[in-house]
Design brief:
This protein is mainly α and 217 residues long. It contains 6 helices and 2 strands; from the N terminus they run H-H-H-H-H-E-E-H.
């Protein structure tokens, strides 16, 4: 039994002393060291894409290097667990997508009273009966409630239209005492009428005559 063990030991000793085997082990060791350093460099580059802090990438590379070429695999596994889930590019893309969705939601018309979604050609909200828009009396198009004039026909909503006065009938008189034929009668102002009434006393009605009693004396 001892002889068999000695034979096996001599075989492995001779195998290890073989230059080809020693070169193979050296190449394997160099490969492991290079893989260890490459893992540290990968952790550094990966952290630069995941954070804006200038110190954290160096800490990630140091974390891999501290575990030596023997245990760097475990350090790489731990790093993948604790690293940020999103890169800066992914975070920016997600923020832009959320902002675009928010802008799209804000661009949609909503009722100012119940905040429900309404269409742009609605006049009244069907949920709360709130008035949304009005119809322009000039061009019959929908306009906003806060507009002061119509953007299509230019109608001014703050200036009401002047009422057209009906033509008056004028009295045509013959020219007397040098007056023109189209002279209009002088109108009496209310102040002159009140003054005239104050100066001229009203006409007093005649007092009734006393009745005489008729009968036998």
């Amino acid at each position: 039994m001892q002889g068999i063990l000695d034979t096996i030991a001599e075989f492995f000793q001779g195998l290890l002393e073989d230059p080809t085997v020693q070169l193979g082990f050296q190449l394997i060791g160099i490969y492991i060291v290079l893989l260890w350093l490459a893992t540290a460099f990968w952790a550094y580059r990966d952290m630069t894409h995941r954070t804006a802090n200038p110190v954290l990438p160096y800490l990630a590379a140091a974390w891999i290097i501290v575990f030596t070429p023997v245990f760097f695999v475990f350090s790489a596994i731990l790093y993948r667990i604790v690293r940020p889930k999103e890169t800066l590019a992914e975070a920016n893309e997600r923020a832009l997508a959320e902002e675009a969705m928010l802008i799209e939601v804000e661009a949609q018309a909503h009722c100012a009273s119940c905040h429900r979604r309404v269409e742009r050609d609605w006049i009244i909200c069907p949920s709360c009966r709130n008035r949304l828009r009005r119809v322009c009396p000039g061009c019959a198009k929908l306009v906003e409630l806060d507009w002061t004039l119509c953007a299509w026909c230019g109608k001014d909503f703050e200036r009401p239209e002047l009422l057209r006065e009906a033509p008056r009938s004028r009295v045509m008189a013959r020219p007397l005492s040098g007056l023109p034929a189209t002279a209009e009668p002088t109108t009496v102002t209310p102040l002159a009428r009140v003054t005239a009434e104050a100066v001229e006393p009203p006409h007093a009605e005649p007092a009734p005559k006393p009745r005489t009693a008729s009968g036998p004396r």
